[in-house]
């Protein structure tokens, strides 16, 4: 007897294998094309981005500052908790003459630490607009004088200016004296006991003064550092700082 071989089935298997190989090859080709296009458009975008910012980068290069890495700039130098970041900023202020530049990704920051330079910046009408990072504080302090956009800030400033006259401020002197006496008493307990964080004492004193003068409420933050309000404010500041680190644009 002759053995019948399934030639049609074998041919069908070869055709299926050839088709599968063709599909894979086509997929690889499509992926290569898409990758090439993505790289090309990325390079074009970077080139246009650099071209539009050429004047900014040229002026920034004339200022002193730490060496910046491509893309991330000096971002790695500011990783850490708020105390570590502040210590690094203080070290940079000691190392470089004011003003100096820092790159956080594509964002240029000009650091001013000399009083004469600060006076020029603070008295200029061209520096009223808040940095976009201030939006992260609006959940904590709203859109008051601290974080309001410049147009709203101008309206609020005009409305509140009459409240800051000398006669009205003189009425707050007893409050200043009362809270400062409490502060001095707290600080005197630390004399001769080594280093300590003065912020833990200045912050509650400031909170007491602001709440008692502006709101008419004595929260007694210095007498009760564990009160809900006294603990909530620094915690809110820490959360705002975390949001800036995580959500701020590179």
From TrEMBL:
Cofactor(s) this protein requires: heme
Major localization listed first in the record, in broad terms: endoplasmic reticulum
Keyword match Nucleotide-binding: no
Pfam families, A to Z: p450 (PF00067)
Membrane topology: Peripheral membrane protein
GO cellular component: endoplasmic reticulum membrane
Protein name in UniProt: Cytochrome P450
Organism of this sequence: Graphocephala atropunctata
């Amino acid at each position: 007897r002759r053995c019948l071989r399934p030639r049609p089935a074998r041919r069908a298997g070869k055709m299926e294998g050839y088709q599968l190989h063709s599909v894979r090859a086509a997929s690889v080709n499509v992926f290569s094309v898409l990758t090439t296009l993505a790289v090309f458009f990325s390079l074009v975008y970077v080139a246009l981005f650099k071209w539009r910012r050429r004047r900014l980068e040229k002026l920034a290069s004339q200022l002193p500052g730490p060496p910046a890495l491509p893309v991330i700039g000096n971002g790695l130098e500011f990783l850490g908790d708020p105390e570590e970041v502040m210590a690094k900023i203080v070290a940079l202020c000691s190392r470089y003459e004011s003003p100096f530049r820092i790159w956080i990704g594509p964002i240029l920051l000009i650091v001013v630490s000399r009083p004469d330079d600060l006076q020029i910046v603070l008295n200029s009408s061209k520096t009223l607009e808040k940095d976009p990072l201030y939006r992260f504080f609006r959940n904590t302090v709203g859109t008051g004088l601290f974080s309001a956009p410049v147009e709203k800030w101008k309206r609020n400033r005009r409305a509140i200016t009459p409240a800051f006259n000398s006669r009205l401020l003189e009425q707050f002197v007893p409050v200043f004296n009362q809270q400062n006496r409490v502060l001095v008493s707290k600080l005197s307990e630390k004399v001769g006991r080594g280093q300590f964080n003065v912020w833990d004492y200045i912050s509650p004193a400031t909170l007491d003064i602001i709440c008692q003068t502006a709101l008419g409420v004595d929260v007694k933050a210095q007498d009760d550092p564990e009160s809900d309000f006294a603990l909530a404010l620094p915690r809110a500041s820490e959360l705002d700082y975390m949001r800036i680190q995580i959500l701020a644009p590179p």
